[in-house]
Amino acid sequence: MLTNPSQVIIRNQDSLSQHKVLVLNHEADLLPKALLDVAASVDALALDYHHYLHLAPHANSKLRCYFGHELPHQDPIKPEKYDTVIVYFPKAKPLAPYLFNLAASHLVPNGQLLVVGENKGGIKSLVKLLPEYFATGMKLDNARHCLLFGSNLEGSAPAMKLSDWVSQYQLITPQGEISICNLVGVFSEKRLDLGTELLLSHLPTLSGRVLDFGCGAGVITAALLKAQPSLSLECVDINAMALASCELTLAANGMTAKVYPSDGLTQTTGKFNGIISNPPFHDGLASTTSIAQNFVTDSAKQLQHNGIWQIVANRHLPYSDIIAAEFGQLKVVADNNKYKLYYFQHK
Q1: What residues have CB less than 8 Å from 113, skipping those under 6 apart?
Q2: Which residues form the Methyltransferase small domain (predicted)?
Q3: Which of 21, 26, 158, 295 has the fewest CB atoms within 10 Å around its CB?
Q4: What's the pLDDT tens digit per position in 78-130?
Q5: Of 334, 298, 262, 283, residue with least CA distance to 50
Q6: What is the pLDDT of residue 347?
Q7: CA pair distance 61, 122, nearest whole angstrom
């Protein structure tokens, strides 16, 4: 089943006849595979690891699937070129200019750019957002509550340099001052949010192998290593820009940790002495409860004897029932008007 934006692309696929196509920031469907009905070849770059895992089993000689913030193994002087680049307009609007620059770096001269997105997701501002090296965006289709815009590469785009897309700032934490590197599209308030502040104010003493689930830009990991530098930290997230941010944050603080993508805890292995998280579960999402359930269930299986599990979560969401059902006991070590800090030690 194709998402609504993907269905709009299929409605307009004739313009891709025998093209070499690159799809950026695709969704959890098989649109890149479907485009092979008309395109000569398709490469797909997912910035969401779950979306990559959905498509990857269908890779073949004409369909290459990648996950990350950029295509791998590229010559920075002569990156691979495509006749058409399709961009799914990102939910995090600040990420859009990055994707347009990335698209331009991979387009042949006068190559075709297609941008698709849901009406409610910011796509209506596309014309104002397109850089000057693209022709004025033209609306090609309006269907299924989505818009499709087309343009062409008219000028030369700046070379892609990750350093151009990162903001670095100092953050005061209960563990001391740390440097945070935040790439476009990654949530950051340039201060401690209330949930993370509650968590860091009550960090337990840990040892051995520790997992930071949903690491984001690496705030919790950097604070942990600031206070307990001997820890063996593993940082997982589903978002490519978050993982790249976390790596930059670690480098800026002279710290090391293992950073890798994971859909939930699926790509983690073995057991942990500690699992710490400000989990990426959000109000209003239908998937909130199921994501929380899977995380808690998997955590219970992967926590070492005497291991410590501590998360901060919105007090209005039903985590206490889920946690109690899996761990058999529940301790709230701190709370504020918005969050609760849940703690469990495996005995």
Answers
A1: 84, 85, 87, 100, 103, 104, 107, 134, 150, 151, 152, 153
A2: 178-342
A3: 158
A4: 899 999 999 999 999 999 999 999 999 999 999 999 999 999 988 999 999 99
A5: 262
A6: 78
A7: 35
Segment 213-252, tens digit of pLDDT? 999 999 999 999 999 999 999 999 999 999 999 999 999 9
Task: Extract long-range pairs of 153-159: CB within 8 Å, 24+ residues apart.
Answer: 153/104, 153/107, 153/108, 153/109, 153/110, 153/111, 153/113, 154/110, 157/101, 157/104, 157/105, 157/131, 157/133, 158/101, 159/76, 159/105
Average pLDDT across the chain, whole number: 93
Q: What is the pLDDT of residue 280?
A: 75
Distance of CA 101 to the CA centre of its chain: 18
Two structure tokens written together for 27: 């969704």
Structure tokens given for 247: 């790596």
Convert the pLDDT of each residue in 213-222 to its tens digit: 999 999 999 9
SS3 assignment, position 106: coil
Contact 44, 32 (CB under 8 A): yes
pLDDT for 285 equals: 40
Contacts of 325 (CB under 8 A, 6+ apart): none
